[in-house]
Amino acid sequence: MKKIIKTVQAPAPIGPYNQAVLSGNTLYTSGQIAIDPQTNELVIDDLEKETNLVMQNLKAVLEAADMNFENVIKTSIFISDMNNFQQINKVYATYFNEETAPARETVEVANLPKFVNVEISAIAVK
Fold first, then answer.
1. Which of 37, 44, 57, 96 can pair with 101 through a Cys bridge, CB separation 3.0 to 4.6 Å?
2. pLDDT for 39-54, tens place per residue?
3. Does domain 2-125 correspond to CATH entry 3.40.50.2000?
4. How far apart are CA 52 and CA 9, in angstroms?
């Protein structure tokens, strides 16, 4: 059985998908990009601010499922330019305890929704 997770603290879906789906004790989040949920505006002029907003949006989705970053077991990071990896990783690292950080992959892609620089999704378990 699946439960749809929704929060106004993260951007609303812009297509036929949900912010996250809880199946049993496992949460699968959709990829988050840097849309400010209060203004619905993209924040892509500063890579660190963009990455921080992506992580804040992901945090809001986790919290809507009564979870936090300690529950995350896997993340997927999609970036438009691997040369941006260091800056993105610097911000990403502030959200996790290095000793209990999740597994992850980081993939450079040709393009991302709304031409953003970074998109991150997660799998978390209660």
1. 96
2. 999 999 999 999 999 9
3. no
4. 14
